[in-house]
C-alpha cells in the first residue's frame, strides 16, 4: 500500500441504505462511474467510512473505532476493507487519479457528448423519439396565448423522466416554442446531482441528441472558465457524461426546433451550499458575481434563451423522509407555491432566502439552477404554466414535484 492508501481518504461517493436478506447495508457507488463495481458495506461499519478522511493510518482507524464507537476491528480486516475501497476507485488516491485522467482524456477525445439515456429513458432513434414527444404535445388541452406579452427570455423545465413529467415538459416547451426556435444560443443550467462542490462544471464538448448535434461555443466556455477559474470549472467535467438534467432539456429543445441546431452552453450547477448558510449574503459573493457577469455578457452577444433544468421537492421514504399523506401533500403544494411566487416575481434573493429559512426541508434539487437563471435574467417576471406532483415509490408515499415557468 502507498502512503496515501495507508491514510485512506474516501471520495464523495453515492451511498444508499438498503436491506439485503434482512441485514442493513450501505450500498456504495462511484458517481463518476469510472467502474461499474458497487460495494455492500454492513451498516455497523458506517463509522469506519466517516473516519476515512485521510488523517489516520490503519492503527489510527482501529483506535478511533474502539474509542469513539466501541468497535473492535482486527488490523488485517481493516487493511482488507481499505484495499477493497481502493480497488473500487472509491479512495482519493493515485489509483483514482490515474483512472480519472484516463476517463477524462477519453471523454474529451470524443466528437461529442453522446446521449446517455437514449434507448433507456427515451427512444434512441429520431423517428420514434419525435413520435413520443409529439404525443405529449398532442395530449395537451388547447390554451390560448396571452396577447401582448413579450417573448420569454428563459424558462424552467423539469429534469424528471419523460414517463412522469412528459405533460409538464410539453406544456412549458410548447409555450416557449417560438423563443426556442428563434434562439441563436441556449444556456442550459442543469442540476448536478453528483457534483464535487464546484459552483459550476463546464465542458467544451458538443451535446448530441437523437436529432443531431448541438454545438458548444468554445469561446464562450473559455470566458466562463476564466471567470470561475480553470481548475474549478473543469474539475467536475466528467459528470457531464452521465448527468441527465441537461440532456433531457436538450432533447426537448432540439425537438421543438425541428432538429435545427443552435449553440448550446451546457452548465452543471453545484449545490452552492455556502449560500444556504444563515449569514450568507449572495450579493456580496465575488465568485458568484463574476460567474453571473460572465453569463450575462455571453447571453448579450446573441439572441439567447436561458433554461433552468430543475425539479422541485423530493419528499417521502424514497428520500429518507416520512410517508407522504393527504395533509402532507397539501402542505407540500403550499410550500411549493410560496417558492414559485418568488420565481414569478423574479426575486432571486427571495427565492434563495425561502430555501435558506426552512433549511431546504423539502429537498428542492433545482435550487442552484433556478437561482442562477433568475440572477442571470435580472428583472424577469415569471408565468407559471404547469405544476405536478409525481410518484416516487411503488406505494405512492414519496413524491417529486415539478413545474414549468416562462421567464419574460
Percent of residues in helices comes to 40-55%
CATH architecture of the largest domain: 3-Layer(aba) Sandwich
The name CATH uses for the topology of the largest domain is Protocatechuate 4,5-dioxygenase, Chain B
Largest sheet: 8 strands, mixed
The DSSP helix count reads 16
Uncertain runs are none
Q: In the CATH hierarchy, what is the superfamily of the largest domain?
A: LigB-like
Strand content: 15-25%
Radius of gyration: 22 Å
CATH class wording of the largest domain: Alpha Beta
How many distinct folded domains?
2
How far is the N terminus from the C terminus? 58 Å
**What's the oligomerization state?**
single chain
Which outline best applies?
Answer: globular
Helical/strand content category: alpha+beta
How many DSSP-defined strands?
A: 13
Q: Could you spell the SSE succession in H and E letters?
A: HEEEHHHHHEHHEEEEHHHHEHEEHHHEE
Let me know the average pLDDT.
Answer: 95
